[in-house]
């Protein structure tokens, strides 16, 4: 069960942020008779109690997620072993009946022709026997827009060594959180076997705005120190700069390190300000980070093979297209209304029926 469902798709709430509400709700309330307003205040107190119960509900959902994570883990461990080539699946485990129409309709002669071509290629080139599923996670990173936007060319050789990504939930009695673990095989870039990113969460209404509560939200995140090998840190780059001595007029060249775009900056996130005051750029960066963390947890890790094959991407695109079509339909209806207002009304002509509303 996804305690963050809806929030993950629409973007995480900024820490300290409040839900937008009409600016005139105070005016509306002030117009009520005093005796009615008194009863509305009683309803608000009940609403706060509902929010507190809902917060407890989501705490139990988190415990349920933690319980079921232990049941998923053996399957994810086997996925890792197959991806890395540690285990070779049996013929029975490899059986898969595709329901794709284009595969079912493929003519037998085309299959035979393809087999002949494959046989010729095998004779012409040495037989390859790749280990596991090469570049499994890198392929996913390059396929998903949210991740490919972070990916730089110099990151790709490093991510070829990524063996697995796991999600770990906080232990019972501990503050609500989840940790992303990126497991790497030994490589020539850093010494860490595992890189971690912890996302801290809360499931309680804000005392200053309890009605904005919509379930657990990520409130902060914490990365880890990467132990880079000398000269291999892709998060910085070395630049040369000329300096002129004011007195002697001599010129010297100095080198300095400056930040460099890289996926691995993901492990050095912007920190939430203790006082909650952050500039707009920092707020946007933090909100994006929260969204990416949630996407790893809810989509990438549980459905990795479908992102590798592109099937999950097709599902995402279909959903976006459906939303777009609905928006277009609404826009066309509005334009049609304008035309009706501007034109002369003729009761003898059949009037257009309103478009059917699509249920979300």
From TrEMBL:
> Biological process GO annotation list?
nucleosome assembly
Q: Compositionally biased, Acidic residues: which spans?
A: 312-344
User: Has keyword Nucleus?
Assistant: yes
What GO cellular-component annotations does this UniProt entry give? nucleus
* Region span, Disordered: 312-360
Keywords associated with the record: Nucleus
InterPro entries xrefs = NAP-like_sf, NAP_family
- Broad class of where this protein is predominantly found: nucleus
Can you tell me which residues the record assigns to a coiled coil? none
Protein localization: Nucleus
Q: State the family it belongs to.
A: Belongs to the nucleosome assembly protein (NAP) family.
Protein name, please? Nucleosome assembly protein 1-like 4a isoform X1
């Amino acid at each position: 069960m996804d305690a963050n469902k809806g929030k993950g798709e629409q973007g995480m709430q900024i820490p300290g942020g409040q839900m937008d509400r009409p600016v005139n709700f105070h005016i509306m309330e002030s117009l009520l008779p005093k005796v009615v307003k008194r009863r509305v205040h009683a309803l608000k107190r009940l609403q706060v109690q509902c929010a507190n119960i809902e917060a407890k509900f989501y705490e139990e959902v988190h415990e349920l997620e933690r319980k079921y994570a232990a049941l998923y883990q053996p399957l994810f461990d086997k996925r890792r072993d197959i991806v890395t080539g540690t285990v070779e699946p049996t013929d029975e485990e490899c059986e898969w009946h595709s329901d794709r129409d284009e595969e079912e309709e493929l003519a037998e002669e085309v299959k035979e022709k393809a087999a002949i071509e494959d046989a010729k290629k095998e004779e012409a080139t040495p037989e390859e026997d790749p280990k596991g599923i090469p570049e499994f996670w890198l392929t996913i990173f390059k396929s998903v827009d949210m991740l490919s936007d972070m990916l730089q060319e110099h990151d790709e050789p490093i991510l070829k060594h990524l063996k697995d990504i796991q999600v770990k939930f906080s232990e019972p009695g501990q503050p609500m959180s989840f940790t992303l673990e990126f497991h790497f095989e030994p490589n020539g870039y850093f010494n860490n076997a595992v890189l971690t990113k912890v996302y801290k969460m809360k499931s309680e209404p804000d005392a200053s705005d309890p009605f904005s509560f919509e379930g657990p939200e990520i409130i902060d995140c914490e990365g880890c120190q990467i132990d880079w090998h000398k000269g291999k840190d892709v998060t910085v780059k070395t630049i040369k700069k000329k300096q002129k001595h004011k007195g002697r007029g001599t010129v010297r060249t100095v080198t300095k390190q400056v930040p460099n775009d890289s996926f691995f900056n993901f492990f050095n996130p912007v920190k939430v300000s203790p006082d909650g005051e952050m500039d707009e750029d920092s707020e946007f960066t933090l909100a994006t980070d929260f969204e990416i963390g949630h996407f790893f947890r809810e989509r990438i890790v549980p459905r990795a093979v479908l992102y590798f094959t592109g099937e999950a991407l097709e599902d995402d695109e279909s959903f976006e297209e459906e939303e777009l079509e609905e928006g277009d339909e609404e826009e066309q209806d509005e334009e049609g209304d304008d035309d009706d207002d501007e034109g002369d009304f003729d009761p003898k002509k059949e009037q257009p029926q309103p478009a059917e509303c699509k249920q979300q």
